[in-house]
Amino acid sequence: MKPASLITILTLALGAAAPWLISSYELSLLGRFLAFSLVALGIMLTWGEGGILSLGQGVFFGLGGYALAMNLKLAGLNLANGDMPDFMQWSGVSALPGFWYPFANPWFSLVCVVLVPGIFAAAFSWLVFRRRIGGVYFALITQALALAFATLLVSEQAFTGGFNGLTDFSTFAGHDITSQGAARVIYLITFLLVVASYFFLRWLLGTRFGTMLRATRDGENRVRFLGHNPLPYKVVAFTLAGMLSGMGGALFTLHAGVISPALVGVVPSIEMVVWVAVGGRNVLWGAIAGTLLVNFAKDEISSALPSLWLYALGGLFILAVSFLPGGIAGLFTTPRMPRFFQRRRQEAAE
Amino acid sequence: MNTAPLLTLENVTVDFDGFKALTDVSLSLAPQDLRVLIGPNGAGKSTLCDTIIGRVRPTSGRILFKNQPITALPEQDIVRRGICRKFQTPGVLPSLSVMENLLVSARKNRAWWLAFSSSPPAAEQERAEEILETIGLTDRRETLAGSLAHGEKQWLEIGMVVATDAELLLLDEPTAGMGPQDTQRTADLILSLVGRHAVLVIDHDMSFVEALNGYTTVLHQGQILREGTVSEIRADAAVEAVYLGRAKEDVA
Description:
Strand content of chain B: 15-25%
Strand content of chain A: under 5%
CATH architecture of chain B: 3-Layer(aba) Sandwich
Strand order of the largest sheet of chain B: 6-7-8-3-9-10
Number of strands of chain A: 4
Number of helices of chain B: 9
Oligomer: heterodimer
Strand order of the largest sheet of chain A: 1-4
Shape of chain A: globular
Largest sheet of chain A: 2 strands, antiparallel
Helix content of chain B: 25-40%
Structural class of chain A: mainly alpha
Largest interface: A-B, 25 and 32 residues
Largest sheet of chain B: 6 strands, mixed
Order of helices and strands of chain B: EEEHEEHEHHHEHEHEEHH
Mean pLDDT of chain A: 91
Number of strands of chain B: 10
Radius of gyration of chain B: 18 Å
CATH topology of chain B: Rossmann fold
Structural class of chain B: alpha/beta
Number of domains of chain B: 1
Order of helices and strands of chain A: HHHHHHHEEEHHHHEHHHHH
CATH superfamily of chain B: P-loop containing nucleotide triphosphate hydrolases
Shape of chain B: globular
């Protein structure tokens, strides 16, 4: 057996057995970070393979998270009776707003977790890319989008829970989601979705679609003047990334028991890019590894020295960009290795 | 010429905010023609290419390809009609292998929803292999295009343009930055394409132009100065004054 497939099998086995190997606190962290890694996989697809840097993936993460949280908030309420989520009562809302009603259905909510970010990402990217806006300008637009989204959530307190977001969940589709058994099930679902997304993207990047996406990244004009329309490749990649982010947001909401503007705004959106930069933006497992590594480091560092984390994050980003352009995963794959390692490998080969 | 022209430019003018890059240029190319376009820097050669492929839109005038106006079409549709261009600085796709570069170019059905298959149709693979041989990069098929030598990149891009099976190839300075040996090889490569494609070559290296020995158009300050065979152009006093004479001085 090849070492690579052995590592894959070992990782899969460890991941699946994790609920019985680690404490429930660690499991909840791992679950959250795996949910984050769905976002990272999307960033790897758009940024690494498509050359599209989005500094606003938090928006899609939030759309997915809120779509599910709205259902969790309505669970157990008797809507016919005029019941409302607690924060609406505090804000003096007289009746449940119309757009909340369909979310009382858990299956509608689940579909929205993927569809709402997907449709939004598709429409947004189509509009922007059609005007041939890209590069730094695109990054800035997405950054502004993240700011606007977080601001909107805070300002519409009566409908969104405002700054505090949506929290205090107990059941989903009639199942208790607070017990330890439920935590394991939620973890396993997260794990399965990460594995499925990984293999899906691995397949996708191996098709001609993957080649076309990389071709578009390398030279959008060249691709255009070979008779291809680059637009659909970029839109499809961005839409998939949006859907992955939405899925990640919903799973995160289940693990953390909360979704709030502070989790979807500008700073978290940039952090998401840092995970991928550190892990390696051209390698699928790199995106996942980077996400887990940075987030566990964040957890350790911010519990020991809370004020240090932002500096550590900044330092990490600078280190990754200047010395490891291929991220951690780049150390294991030849093409994007820094010169120092390349030389050593050449010497070893001679 | 008794055949219907493949490409016709009718009084094409390109005006960049008051600067006329092209003035009233009319040109006609027969199928399987080899045409060489020369002229000093800034004569509008690249702009002419840009205008044909839709990167620049003419201020006035028409461009007909196979008797159909193409002036208003999106770039990729112009390519799909059968015009493909090689850029001045090699426009290969650096992080794709040589073979991938050719396969991207050789895609016959360019609809994006047909891209979700893992291997290209056999016919396209065969064509790519064939071109790989023609451009002499068979032993480089898995090399990333970005790490090719300069001359190899130029040949690869010519190969990519050929792979689209366009009836008209526009080659913008295919020998830029090449030594004499590579230049000769490029000339041979281009001559081997004539017959299957019409080729419009832009260059200002006279030895290369002589090696090609095609019908030559001289462009000067956005206007056509002369048209004729290479020897006629060589002998022309006006051409010598604006172009060849200056090139000689440059060399000296």
